[in-house]
Amino acid sequence: MRVLTIGGIPISVESSDRIAQTYSAVGGGRAMRLMKGGLLMQRNWRRLRTTIAVSEARFLPALQGLDLDVPHVIQCLARRQLASATPAITLPTARRADIEPLGYAVLATGFMARTASVLAGDVLTLTPVTGAVSYTATYVPELVALITELEESLDVRSARAGWQLVAEEI
User: Fold this and answer.
1) Inter-residue contact 63 to 150 (CB < 8 Å)
2) CA–CA separation, 9 vs 108, rounded Å?
3) Are 89 and 126 in contact, with CB atoms under 8 Å apart?
4) Total number of domains in the chain
5) CA atoms of 74 and 89, how far apart (whole Å)
6) Which range of residues forms the domain containing residue 90?
7) For the chain (length 170 residues), average pLDDT per consecutive 10?
8) 2 and 73: one domain?
9) Domain match, 125 and 166 both
């Protein structure tokens, strides 16, 4: 059973008929034009924003007890991917330890073939595959984030619940 955990509150994926998680980058930066018109991005920092949306569920999770003014640990559900030209890929330290990262070899056809891997610290070393043009590692983030939005809905007649949470990494 897969479990999403928000602020220590476990939420079973099986309790939701439709659940989705998205990630987007947020950051302190802006595009600047140079004297000859060239474009340059100047960035001081970058973090993740995640949106977890459950459009149909059997019940609402007990998120009302969370203090929305303090950061919470969110053990995410959706995998993220990192690409590399070599079979040794350094993963972020902010990832779930209970879900193993996976490794794939990317072939010239674009097909991704799962390959064995060994995790030592934060480096995932994939078994090289003949004909691979690059490699990809997937992992599931664990974010320390501030919840910026929390919405809940309940269709009383159909007894269908829904909720959405937006959080930004601190």
Assistant:
1) yes
2) 43
3) yes
4) 2
5) 24
6) 80-139
7) 90 86 91 92 91 91 93 97 97 96 97 97 97 98 97 90 96
8) yes
9) no
Secondary structure tally for the chain: helices H, strands E: 0, 14
What is the rounded CA–CA span in Å between residue 28 and residue 81? 23
Q: 73-96, pLDDT tens digit by residue?
A: 999 999 999 999 999 999 999 999
The DSSP bridge pattern shows strands 3-6 and 72-75 to be antiparallel
**What DSSP state is assigned to residue 66?**
S
Q: How far apart are the first and last CA of the chain?
A: 29
Tokens of residue 137, six digits? 């590692």
Same domain, 2 and 58: yes
| The two structure tokens encoding residue 102 | 């996976």
Give the torsion through C-alpha atoms of 155, 1, 141, 17, to 10 deg: -20
Q: Which amino acid is at 29?
A: G
Q: Residue 26 has what pLDDT?
A: 93
What is the C-alpha to C-alpha distance for residues 31 and 43, in angstroms, rounded to an integer?
9
Q: How far is CA 159 from the centre of its chain?
A: 30
